Amino acid sequence: MTRIIAGAAGSTALRVPKSGTRPTSDRVREALFSSLEARGLVDDAAVADLYAGTGALGLEAASRGAVEVVLVDRAAPAVQACRANAKAVQQRVPRVRIDVQPQPALGYLRSTVRTFDLVFVDPPYDVAEEEIADVLEALVPRLTAGAVVVVERSKRSPEPTWPTGLAPFSKRSYGETVAWEAVTPS
To answer: Which domain of life, per UniProt (predicted)?
Structure first.
């Protein structure tokens, strides 16, 4: 069962589509958020969860102190799961603004004027590296100074192609999963 691990909405069960998503495991989310929280990157953050799937990463951030979360996914089953999960978390954390955007990550980034402090990019493993590079390039103007971007991929995937404006600073492996972190200049 996928659930929110900690914070105000801790233990809230999350709906998972029957197919097409690969929710980040509890173990990976706990390790990732322990690191992010230790650096003060979640409290009062504006967060985007691109390729949201269930919305687990963005909603975990909402539970742990983010003030705004945008869940972006183009697949109808994922959008339905994100909406249901956002509603469940919103009941436990009413102060956070949660928005579900039913569209491709690249299209969303090209059309929004919002800016973000923390962004999760967790596409299906079969998404082409070129698409991820395009998403990261479109993301840069949407980032605040000192923003952190976390890209989650298979350990068999190459390191993302980082655009100008994003500097990689961390790579952590969790079994089959690798999480790269990059930061914008402060």
So the answer is: Bacteria
Spatial distance between the Cα atoms of 2 and 25, rounded to a whole number of angstroms: 8
Name the pTM for this structure: 0.97
Contacts 24+ apart (CB under 8 A), 170-177: 170/35, 172/31, 172/32, 172/35, 174/25, 174/27, 174/28, 174/31, 175/25, 177/24, 177/25, 177/28, 177/152, 177/153
pLDDT, tens only, 40-94: 999 999 999 999 999 999 999 999 999 999 999 999 999 999 999 999 999 999 9
Other Cβ atoms closer than 10 A to 75: 19
Helix (H, G, I), strand (E, B) or coil at 139: helix
Which range, of 7-21, 94-108, 153-167, averages the lowest pLDDT?
7-21
Which structural domains are found in the chain, ordered by start?
Answer: 26-183 (3.40.50.150)
Q: What CA–CA distance (Å, rounded) separates 162 from 157?
A: 14
Name the 3-class secondary structure at 85.
helix
Q: Within its chain, how far is the Cα of 143 from the centroid? A: 14
Residue with tokens 């980040």: 24
